[in-house]
């Protein structure tokens, strides 16, 4: 009996700390005019997802420039079986928008995305900002509920978009970036943030939830998303679909706080539990990332920036 109890406790502990993550990409189809053009980015990204057996992911789309090559790129993601979801029409900052104007922007995207067979009524707030007043927060909650939308929260935050900006800045200046060094830097930064928020969830939930990783549809993602998947698996993570991730009970959580800057669902829970500081990991700092990028990726070439 004692051995059975011990075995059950081990299983329970393992399950409570099972590490699962879904991959999601914001700002699709994002501007592509640097290292890759749009079609090359899409081809490379889709190939990486397939080659590394990532499975289904979600692309959260902005629709204000959904035409020509950008339309074809988003169509390629949908045709590959990936989820297309709503990230607004013009990517507005809710903190600076009136409620009705913001709703109208989200509605415009909803109308544009209905043509995609894999479209799901999932909405991700641009900048993760969900309303800086009670009226705006509650107004959007009501709108999303009324329209049958899921608030497609994230749990694992990062500044991958800023690493992309640093990379593209170097490319634009004609600096030859060592992709092996960039890969190492990218993986180190991403894994550090993932581990931080997973530990924060264990602290405040007592378990590792089904995580949702925020990324962006960008060149560095197309370059390294397969490496990220492999690294996570080597560290004991499983990659799941976004649909599976949103079955976690934290999908039903609604913060009672009004957060001008939202750190993600785990940050919300931690904040409501009294954890008011360090909701953004140190890797979510532009100055820190620039200094590290110049030192770890560019080295002597940094003097040209």
From TrEMBL:
Presence of the UniProt keyword Oxidoreductase in the record: no
Keyword set includes Membrane: no
One Pfam family of this chain: Polysacc_deac_1
InterPro entries: Glyco_hydro/deAcase_b/a-brl, NODB_dom, Polysacc_deacetylase_ArnD
Signal sequence region: 1-18
Cited PROSITE patterns: NODB (PS51677)
Name of the protein in question: Polysaccharide deacetylase
Organism: Microbulbifer flavimaris
Keyword entries, A-Z: Hydrolase, Metal-binding, Signal
SUPFAM superfamilies recorded: Glycoside hydrolase/deacetylase
Ranges for domain NodB homology: 19-240
């Amino acid at each position: 009996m004692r051995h059975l109890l011990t075995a059950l406790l081990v299983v329970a502990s393992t399950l409570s700390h099972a590490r699962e993550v879904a991959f999601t990409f914001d700002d699709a189809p994002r501007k592509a005019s640097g290292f890759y053009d749009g079609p090359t980015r899409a081809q490379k990204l889709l190939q990486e997802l397939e080659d590394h057996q990532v499975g289904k992911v979600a692309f959260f789309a902005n629709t204000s420039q959904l035409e020509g090559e950008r339309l074809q790129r988003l169509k390629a993601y949908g045709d590959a079986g990936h989820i297309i979801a709503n990230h607004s029409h013009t990517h507005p900052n809710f903190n600076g928008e009136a409620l009705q104007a913001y709703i109208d922007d989200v509605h415009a995207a909803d109308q544009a995305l209905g043509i995609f067979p894999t479209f799901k009524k999932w909405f991700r707030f641009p900048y993760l900002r969900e309303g800086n007043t009670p009226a705006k927060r509650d107004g959007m909650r009501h709108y999303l509920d009324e329209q049958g939308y899921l608030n497609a929260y994230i749990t694992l935050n990062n500044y991958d978009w800023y690493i992309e900006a640093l990379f593209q800045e170097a490319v634009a200046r004609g600096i030859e970036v060592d992709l092996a060094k960039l890969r190492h830097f990218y993986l180190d930064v991403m894994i550090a943030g993932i581990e931080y928020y997973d530990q924060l969830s264990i602290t405040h939930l007592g378990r590792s939830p089904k995580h949702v990783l925020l990324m962006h549809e960008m060149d560095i993602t197309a370059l390294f998303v397969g490496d990220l998947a492999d690294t996570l698996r080597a560290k004991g993570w499983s990659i799941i679909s976004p649909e599976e991730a949103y079955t976690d009970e934290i999908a039903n959580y609604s913060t009672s706080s009004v957060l001008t800057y939202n750190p993600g669902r785990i940050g919300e829970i931690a904040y409501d539990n009294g954890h008011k500081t360090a909701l953004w990991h140190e890797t979510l700092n532009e100055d820190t990332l620039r200094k590290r990028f110049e030192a770890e990726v560019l080295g002597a070439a940094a003097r040209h920036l």
